[in-house]
Amino acid sequence: MSAIGSSGQTVTASAAMDEPDVRQRIQAGFTGGLVGGVTIWIYEAIVWVGVQHLMPMAGIPRNATGLVFGKAVQDSLGGLAYVVGTGIHFFFCLAWGAVFALAWPWFRRRGYEATLVAMFFAIFVWIVMHAAIALATDNHPNYLDPMVIIGGFMSHFFYTVPLALIVKHRLG
Question: Which of 36, 56, 97, 104 has the fewest CB atoms within 10 Å of its CB?
Answer without folding.
Answer: 56
